C-alpha cells in the first residue's frame, strides 16, 4: 500500500520516559507501510542485577518494525512507566528496582513508521536486591590500658608495647629487631574483656627516628576473635604512610559479628624490614546507620 502521510518515528536510539508520546517526532514521508511484527516472549530474556533489571531481546528481522515500546508499572513510585527503543537496540536497563516486589510485568509492543502497533507481549522479570548503604554517625574512643595489649614479637631492649597507649607520641613500641629476628607477621593484640562490633583504628608513626622511613606498617590485616585462638580477617589496610610522625585513621569496618579480641597484624613493612614500630595506637567503636531499600517501610 503506497501512502503519503505524517508518521511518528523514534527520536534517538534509546529514550526512557514516563510518557512515550512526548518523545516522538512527526515527519512528512512517502512510502509503503508494513504491519509490525510482534516480539515473541521466547526472544526476550532478563537478568537480575543489584537494584536493576536488564532486559535483552534478539535483533529483529529486517523491516520487522521501526521502534519498540516497553511499558511497566513501578511499584516504588506507583507510576506507569513507558520506555522506547529504536529498532537497532536489543537491551534496556531498568534502574531503581527492588527484589522485594517480586515479578515486574513488562509489556513489549512494536510499531511501524505509521505508529501502528503489534500485539502486546508480556514478559515477567525479577530485580536483584538493591544494595544497602551505610553511614557513620559517630565514633567513640575505647580507652585502652597497657595490660590489655600483647604482641608476638616484643623487642627486649626498647619500645615496650604499653607505650602505644601512654598518650605520649615521643615514646614508641618496637617489634623485635635484635637477633634472632622473627619473621612477619608481627601483631598488636588487644584483649577487650567485652564485646565490640563496628570499629575503626588510629595510629601515629614513630616520631623520633626522622632519619629513616623504614619499619612502618605497609600492609595490615585487621583480625577479630572471641577466644584468642581462632582469628578472622575482616579488613586489610594498604598504602599506609611511611613518613615519621604521620597519623593514620581508618575507615569504619563492619564485621557483621561481635568480638572480644582484636589484632593489628602487620604482614609487610616499608623497607621490607622484619619489624615495625609505632608511637601511638587507638581503637574506636563506631555507630553505623544502615539504610536498606529492601526492608525500609514504604509510604
Automatic annotation (TrEMBL):
PROSITE patterns per UniProt: FA58C_3, PROKAR_LIPOPROTEIN
Superkingdom classification of source: Bacteria
Gene3D superfamilies: Galactose-binding domain-like (2.60.120.260), Immunoglobulins (2.60.40.10)
Coiled-coil regions listed: none
Pfam families given in the database record: F5_F8_type_C (PF00754)
Record domain F5/8 type C: where: 132-286
Name listed for the protein in its UniProt record: Carbohydrate-binding protein
Organism annotation: Bacteroides stercorirosoris
Amino acid at each position: 500500500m503506497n501512502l503519503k502521510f505524517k508518521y511518528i518515528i523514534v527520536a534517538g536510539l534509546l529514550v526512557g520516559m514516563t510518557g512515550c508520546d512526548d518523545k516522538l517526532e512527526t515527519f512528512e514521508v512517502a512510502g509503503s507501510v508494513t504491519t509490525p511484527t510482534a516480539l515473541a516472549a521466547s526472544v526476550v530474556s532478563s537478568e537480575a542485577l543489584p537494584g536493576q533489571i536488564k532486559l535483552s531481546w534478539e535483533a529483529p528481522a529486517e523491516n520487522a518494525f521501526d521502534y519498540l515500546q516497553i511499558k511497566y508499572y513501578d511499584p516504588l513510585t506507583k507510576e506507569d512507566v513507558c520506555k522506547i527503543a529504536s529498532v537497532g537496540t536489543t537491551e534496556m536497563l531498568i534502574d531503581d528496582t527492588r527484589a522485594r516486589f517480586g515479578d515486574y510485568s513488562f509489556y513489549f509492543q512494536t510499531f511501524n513508521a505509521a505508529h501502528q502497533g503489534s500485539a502486546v507481549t508480556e514478559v515477567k522479570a525479577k530485580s536483584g536486591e538493591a544494595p544497602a548503604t551505610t553511614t557513620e554517625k559517630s565514633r567513640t574512643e575505647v580507652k585502652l590500658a597497657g595490660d590489655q595489649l600483647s604482641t608476638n614479637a616484643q623487642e627486649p631492649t626498647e619500645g615496650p608495647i604499653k607505650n602505644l597507649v601512654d598518650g605520649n607520641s615521643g615514646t614508641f613500641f618496637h617489634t623485635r629487631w635484635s637477633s634472632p629476628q622473627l619473621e612477619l607477621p608481627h601483631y598488636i593484640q588487644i584483649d577487650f574483656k567485652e564485646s565490640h562490633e563496628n570499629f575503626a583504628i588510629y595510629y601515629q608513626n614513630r616520631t623520633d627516628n626522622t632519619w629513616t622511613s623504614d619499619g612502618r606498617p605497609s600492609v595490615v590485616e585487621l583480625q577479630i576473635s572471641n577466644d584468642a585462638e581462632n582469628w578472622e580477617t575482616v579488613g586489610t589496610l594498604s598504602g599506609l604512610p611511611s613518613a615519621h610522625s604521620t597519623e593514620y585513621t581508618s575507615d569504619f569496618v563492619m564485621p557483621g559479628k561481635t568480638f572480644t579480641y582484636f589484632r593489628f597484624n602487620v604482614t609487610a613493612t616499608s623497607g621490607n624490614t622484619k619489624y615495625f614500630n609505632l608511637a601511638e595506637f587507638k581503637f574506636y567503636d563506631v555507630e553505623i546507620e544502615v539504610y536498606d531499600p529492601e526492608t525500609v517501610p514504604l509510604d
